Amino acid sequence: MCSVSWQQEQDEIVVCFNRDEQRTRAIAESPKVYRESSTQVIMPTDPDGGGTWISVNQYGVFLGLLNFYEANIGNKSQEILVGSYISRGLLIRELSCCENLSDFEVMLSPDNLKQYQPFKIIFISKNAKKLFVWNGVILSNNVLDNFISSSSFNTQSVLIYRYKQFEQAENDLLKLHTDHTDRKDAYSICMHRDDAKTVSLSVIKIDNSEVSFQYWDGAPCSCQPSETISLVIDEKKTSQNV
Q: How does 199-214 read in b/e, with b if 16+ C-beta sit within 10 Å?
């Protein structure tokens, strides 16, 4: 239950990510700078699983995780073993050290994914924008649209409505992710339901010199962002990115 939009103008990439969760889920820890396999990474963390749903690192590589509710695994044995799955957030944390797309594709081996429930992973860097989809059986590599969303509630109708909202946003991504138009419910991008809601907004900017991370710790329609956290881009490494 999340929505992500992004745009690139000249040398700057902007990504907005609304995270939607059950109201009973523990509040995430705000973004900090971590070191994963010698790489500096900015990410929030989920106290329930220890992982994350979003990260950006010193090489200007952004990763975002969405649940893939539309997946039809077709394997009843996997359904029985739901409790034995590893948190998908831990996978993002593991992959957050990648320097480029080539490194990411090597680490995201299909042979190791059967321990995770279906997901979509967004990869964005200066030189590559990709959507990786794991349906429980097959990992596919897709072109990344400028807007992607997920919902466990009335999935198809909700996604159609949200895509229309994106098309009408005229590239004002912050307004898209914080404001409500004609409804404030399960259909809106800043989502509100009796059992779940949008619990945070992350705005990540990547340019030639630095990456920055700004975080709204709560429904972005009703709270203010925290101070921005930044990292200097490793120019030597990014010049080699594929």
A: bbbbbbbbeeeebbbb
Cβ-contact 33, 74 below 8 angstroms:
no
Predicted confidence at residue 240, as pLDDT, reads 52
What is the C-alpha to C-alpha distance for residues 20 and 29, in angstroms, rounded to an integer?
Answer: 15
As a whole number of angstroms, the distance between CA 219 and CA 196 comes to 11
CA 214 to chain centre: 14
CATH at 185: 3.60.60.10
- Cα 178 to chain centroid, rounded: 16
- Beta strand pairing status for 62-67 and 54-57? antiparallel
Per residue in 44-76, pLDDT (tens digit) is 999 988 999 999 999 999 999 999 988 854 444
Q: Please, where are the H alpha helices in the chain? A: 76-80, 88-95, 101-107, 155-167, 173-178, 235-238
Count structural domains, the chain: 1
Do 201 and 44 form a contact (C-beta atoms < 8 A)?
A: no
Would you say residue 238 has pLDDT above 80? no
Range of the domain at 29: 2-238
Instruction: Give the span between the Cα atoms of 82 and 218, in whole angstroms.
Output: 29
Q: How many CB atoms lie within 10 A of CB 195?
A: 10
Residues 165, 151: contact at Cβ < 8 Å?
no
| Cα pseudo-dihedral 30, 5, 229, 11, rounded to 10 | 170
Say if CB 210 and CB 184 are below 8 A apart.
no
235 by DSSP, 3-state: which?
helix
